[in-house]
Specification:
Blueprint (H helix, E strand, L loop, with lengths): L1 E7 L3 H13 L4 E5 L10 E6 L3 H10 L6 E7 L2 H8 L3 E2 L10 H12 L10 H20 L7 E4 L2 H16 L5 E5 L4 H12 L3 E5 L9 H7 L4 E5 L13 H11 L3 E4 L11 H4 L3 E5 L10 E5 L14 H4 L7 H39 L3 E4 L9 E6 L4 H10 L2 E2 L1 E2 L12 H5 L4 H4 L2 E5 L6 H21 L1 H5 L3
Parallel strand pairs: 5-15, 7-8, 7-9, 9-10, 10-11
Antiparallel strand pairs: 1-3, 1-4, 2-3, 6-12, 11-12, 13-14, 14-17, 16-17
Helix pairs in contact: 4-12, 5-12, 6-7, 12-16, 13-16
This protein binds pyridoxal-5'-phosphate (PLP).
The site of pyridoxal-5'-phosphate (PLP) has 13 residues, from helix 6.
Length: 474
């Protein structure tokens, strides 16, 4: 075993910054959960070869980063650790899903054989065009839309940008007010923030302790100036499902365009634009076993909207750019595959998810559920483990071959607590210890058992090191 140095830092953010510095200097290093027995600093250690010790200290100090402690001892190589780990368990399906084998199979001919540009008039082009139009029909049928109401995009972020900026462009003469929620994905929130800088007024609606929006608040927020309401269908961090059709009814009565970001709900629960009664809906293939970098925006017939991307006459002048034919084929196949199994699969996932929650709560104390107990995506479980940092849990689970994510997003400079959990009124100290498990079609009972077996030990080790835990006399 090679001898390594382990440096500890006061926060995860500082450790991450130090890693960036070493990466730039081409010094091989790894962020790992802090091995037991290492003194002060957060639950993460930066590990590098002993020979680089002096260079590392001087490099990080030039950027004003203090190392809390340095320790040197032999440590197993990554490969040895991975061997010990055995099968890897993926519980981060809200971040992305593996491409379904049938999706991949359907896409391959469009890289290999039917590679034509769908705008070309020759046979190669016509074949590609035919395939796109068939795909459009399948995707439209999946969400109960008409084919001409589907515009292909590069994914959820573009669809959200398109919906908001497109409506604003076409409606700004009528007014400059937008209504959204405080728990939207950044693909919506950051567009709204940019618009505020351009003189638009944005109302960010509050949510209750379960992350639910009250439609009455929407009614109250509407003014003569309101030109768009955008509220997500299901939240990516906690899985709470919003009362979209009730909000749509209010928007319809007032004649205000209504967009929903359904990136997390499409493929997990039935989504029908007819039943939801929305004017615009964003979806993204990679969230339901399709390829990355392709999605769609549903635009109800007759909705006045400007294009986001201009250039050629693609997508009936609504979205310029040569179509991503294999991606679009993959998106359609993903719709077909999930629609065949959605009901049964979501029942299975819900049962596994609830087993996970019960098993963890039985073995660990001071654990809280974030999100609605019932109005929630069947695959999503967000828990807060008090007194510790979610980031440390993620790294420790990763060492065991288990992939999850935190409910909190890192922003540069500080460990920002999740805006979603903050909006729900959760104590910032409790937010730091939040973890999102998002299950998918390949997860099994064994996976859940393994998490229930491994996680309690990690939590108690981290709590032993936690000053907060000690302060509360636990
Ligand atoms: C609710 C929500 N909206 C939008 C996006 C962005 O989608 P994409 O990754 O396809 O750009 C995500 C992705 O995490 C999401 O969860």
């Amino acid at each position: 075993m090679i001898k390594y140095v382990f440096s500890t830092f006061q926060t995860t953010q500082l450790a991450t910054k130090a890693k960036d510095i070493l990466d730039d200097a081409h010094i091989g290093c790894e962020l790992i959960p802090k091995p037991i027995g290492l003194g002060a600093g957060c639950g993460i250690a930066l590990k590098y070869k002993e020979v680089d010790n002096i260079k590392v200290s001087s490099l990080v100090r030039t950027k004003s980063i203090n190392i809390s402690g340095t320790y040197s001892f032999p440590y197993p190589e990554k490969k040895e650790r991975q061997k010990k780990m055995g099968k890897r368990i993926y519980l981060d399906h809200n971040a992305t899903t593996p491409t379904h084998p049938l999706v991949l199979e359907a896409m391959l001919p469009y890289y290999r054989d039917t590679f034509g540009n769908a705008s070309s008039v020759h046979a190669f082009g016509r074949e590609a065009r035919g395939a796109i139009e068939q795909a459009r029909e399948k995707i439209a049928a999946f969400i109960e839309a008409a084919p001409e109401e589907i515009v292909f995009t590069s994914g959820g972020t573009e669809s959200d940008n398109f919906a908001i900026k497109g409506i604003v462009g076409a409606w700004e003469k009528k007014g400059k007010h937008i209504i959204t929620s405080s728990i939207e994905h950044h693909a919506v929130l950051n567009v709204c923030k940019k618009l505020e800088k351009k003189g638009f007024k944005v109302t960010y609606l509050p949510v209750d302790k379960f992350g639910l929006i009250n439609p009455i608040d929407i009614k109250k927020a509407i003014t003569d100036e309101t030109i768009l309401i955008t509220v997500m269908h299901a939240n990516n961090e906690i899985g709470t499902i919003e009362p979209i059709s009730e909000i749509a009814k209010i928007a319809k009565e007032k004649g205000i365009p209504f967009h929903t970001d359904a990136v997390q709900s499409v493929g997990k629960i039935p989504v029908s634009v007819t039943r939801l009664n929305v004017d615009l809906l964003s979806l993204s293939a990679h969230k339901f076993y399709g390829p990355k970098g392709v999605g769609a925006l549903y635009i109800r017939k007759g909705t006045k909207i400007d294009p986001l991307i201009v250039g050629g006459h693609h997508e009936k002048n609504r979205r310029a750019g040569t179509e991503n034919v294999p991606g679009i084929i993959g998106l359609a196949k993903a719709c077909e595959v999930v629609s065949l199994h959605m009901r049964k699969e979501s029942e299975n996932l819900k049962a596994l998810r609830d087993k996970l929650e019960k098993g963890l709560k039985e073995k660990i104390d001071n654990v809280y559920l974030n999100g609605h107990p019932t109005e929630r995506l069947p695959n999503t479980l967000n828990l807060s483990f008090e007194f510790i940092e979610g980031e440390s849990i993620v790294l420790n689970l990763d060492l065991e071959g288990i992939a999850v994510s935190t409910g909190s997003a890192c922003t540069s400079g500080s460990l920002e607590p999740s805006h979603v959990l903050k909006a729900m009124g959760i104590d910032p100290a409790v937010i730091q210890g939040s973890l999102r498990f998002s299950l998918g079609r390949d997860n099994s009972e064994e996976d859940i058992k393994r998490v229930i077996e491994v996680l309690p030990g990690i939590i108690s080790r981290l709590r032993e090191m936690s000053p907060l835990h000690k302060m509360k006399g636990k």
